[in-house]
Amino acid sequence: MASKTIDSKMAVPHLTAVALRVGLVNLAMWLIGFAVSLRVDFDTAVAFTAGVASGVLNLYLYMRIVKKGITKPLEEMAGFIISRYYGKFFIIILLLTGLIWRLKLNALPLLLGFVGTIMATIVTMVFISRKEYI
Known about the structure:
Layout: H1 8-40, H2 42-69, H3 74-101, H4 107-133
């Protein structure tokens, strides 16, 4: 089966709607995780919140890269997305390292919050894609 081509003018509003759904799911995940981590202790809840915030920043940067990338000509698209992706990667690594090293946040809840946003996003995207394409 041939894949559909996507017009960039049509895709940007669709990406915004998807980002809103993903944001709401991540908010629910943060509320549940914050309540659970608060039962452990306050420092764990702070580290979890910092991890979720880092994960949301990561997803925001992904969305910016995709929104700008799909408006580029096809020949420039791959190079644009790859170069921005590496920049985003180093920003996130520096942020996580700084949170652990400088602010002395517990690494486990920090990474659980970060990975939690990624997993919540993947699950949400699977449900969105099943709803729209099946």
